[in-house]
Amino acid sequence: MPDWSEIVANIVKASGEPLDTPTARPVGGGSINQAYVVEGDGHRYFVKLNRNHLLDMFEAEAEGLNEMRSANAIKVPAPICYGTSGSEAYIALEYIAFGGSGGGQKLGEQLAVLHKKTWDHFGWHRENTIGSTPQPNTPTDNWADFYRQYRLGFQLELATRNGGAHLMRNGERLMAELDAFFADHHPVPSLLHGDLWGGNYSTDQDGNPVIFDPATYYGDREADIAMTELFGGFPREFYSAYNEVWPLDEGYSTRKTLYNLYHVINHFNLFGGGYLSQADRMIGSLLSEIR
Ligand code: ADP
After folding, report:
1. 31 in ligand 1 pocket by Cβ < 6 Å?
2. What is the pLDDT of residues 130-141, one digit of tens each?
3. Domain 104-290: homologous superfamily in CATH
4. With a 6 A CB cut-off, is 95 part of the ligand 1 pocket?
């Protein structure tokens, strides 16, 4: 257990708000970290804990949240502070009361605005994580090169070490042919959430969509849209509203498989099981597109 008084003292210092007689109560929901609500004096914070060697992961999360907040496009919880206490690392965030409904249309409009924030390169100024897997973001000028080396190639290497070596044979062919998917599609480096599945989006009590728990970098905006379709859960209005603001390019449905392949291999690397055969089928289907 961490020393809560140390965490509370840091929250008070960073926020400038008092937090007398605070309580820390565990809440469920997180897939990677243990989550708590810390409150007192009418102030409330959402605190995530993990082992102290993962401090870097929380530092990257705080920077990713701030990067998205700087776009002024969509509601994102403010990071308050992060650090270590005993054997634990922690991050404290602004607490957001969820429970509203009907945020799908706004989410579509606002995500398109987030994606209009661009950078000079694909990647980011630092590494972060996707789930708990490291995610390299080395700035790169060519999107296909970035996706080949730092997304597919990186996960395929990990899969090889995790018992999925046979993915590599077709995976290498796919990487060699990757340019074929970008003959008529030249994305700009858009600010991405990076891990936009249904569990990382919610609606606050005023009906505002909120996105959190990012794996931020600058990349093809279609990668964010593709992930919303991987596990479902995003309303139809979300897609129509997004397309009204910034229509997707032709050929998205093929690239969707290419982008979700990254997450499926990552799921194999994190959880094993049937994700391996799913990744294998996706690679087969992508190769058949370019033969
Ligand atoms: P993990 O990093 O462990 O996956 P998440 O950041 O996804 O954890 O948070 C887990 C759950 O906690 C979310 O699904 C959401 O319901 C809730 N949550 C996340 N951030 C906040 C916040 N700032 N305020 C209130 N609840 C939050």
Report:
1. yes
2. 999 999 999 999
3. Aminoglycoside phosphotransferase (APH), C-terminal lobe (3.90.1200.10)
4. yes
- Between the two ends of the chain, the Cα-to-Cα distance in Å is 55
Domain ranges in the chain?
4-94, 104-290
Choose which residue among 212, 266, 270 to substitute to test ligand 1 binding: the one with the highest number of ligand atoms within 8 A of its C-beta.
212
Q: Which of 36, 59, 213 to mutate to test the pocket of ligand 1 (most atoms within 8 A of CB)?
A: 213
29 CA → ligand 1 middle, Å: 7
Return the percentage of the chain with pLDDT > 70, whole number: 100
Quick: pLDDT tens for 157-166. Answer: 999 999 999 9
- Distance, CA of 222 to CA of 211 (rounded, Å): 17
Query: How deeply is 186 buried, as exposed, middle or buried, from its count of CB atoms within 10 A (0-12, 13-18, 19+)?
Result: exposed
Query: Ligand 1: distance of its center to the CA of 206 in Å?
Result: 18
Mean pLDDT of 139-152: 98
Query: Is 195 marked active-site?
Result: yes
CA of residue 61 to ligand 1 center, whole Å: 12
Per-residue model confidence as pLDDT tens digits over 68-122: 999 999 999 999 999 999 999 999 999 999 999 888 999 999 999 999 999 999 9
Asked whether the whole model's pTM tops 0.90, one would answer yes
- Domain spanning 4-94: CATH 3.90.1580.10: no
Distances from the Cα of 113 to the Cα of 70, 121, 158, 230, angstroms: 12, 19, 34, 22
